[in-house]
Design brief:
disordered C terminus, 5-stranded parallel sheet, about 150 residues, 5 strands, alpha/beta, 7 helices
């Protein structure tokens, strides 16, 4: 039995909410079990405990990098990734470049192991979405319901 309730937890800057919601919907439609705060949290209530629990129940944390995060110094982004790794040491972190993000080359490969998902061109690009799903499966040995057989080949 899979101990993880979610294949992917989406961590993002509030300025990217609309983009991340679109991504979450596309991934969910493809069979990925996504935790997205806008769907899970009750407005007006403290969601800190729910967020921590969801991160622990996720195989992969998608660290979404949009325009705002990509404009921050590399050290700030690296520090955010390190904090996530400390909170959830058994979880894999997958940086996801959103439309509007600048070049990702400056972020240390120590944190990303030269793997990141790039959907900067278009969130509706099926090829980029398929590549992201394959990366989720590889990084987190994601739940077997993800239709990997269609993605590889």
């Amino acid at each position: 039995m899979n101990k993880h309730r979610y294949d992917l937890f989406l961590n993002y800057s509030r300025s990217d909410t609309e983009l991340v919601q679109h991504l979450a919907s596309a991934l969910q439609d493809a069979g990925v079990r996504v935790w997205f705060d806008q769907w899970e949290l009750i407005p007006g209530r403290d969601g800190t405990d729910a967020i921590e629990k969801a991160m622990q129940q996720s195989q992969v944390i998608g660290f979404c990098i949009g325009r705002r995060r990509s404009e921050k110094p590399t050290e700030h982004v690296a520090s955010s990734i390190t904090s996530l790794q400390q909170l959830t040491p058994s979880c894999n972190i997958l940086p996801i470049l959103l439309p509007g993000a600048r070049s990702f080359g400056s972020i240390s490969s120590t944190f990303v192991r030269d793997e990141f998902a790039d959907v900067r061109e278009d969130l509706n690009n099926r090829q980029a979405l398929d590549k992201l799903i394959v990366m989720l499966v590889k990084k987190g040995n994601a739940h077997s319901q993800i239709p990997i057989e269609e993605k590889v080949g």
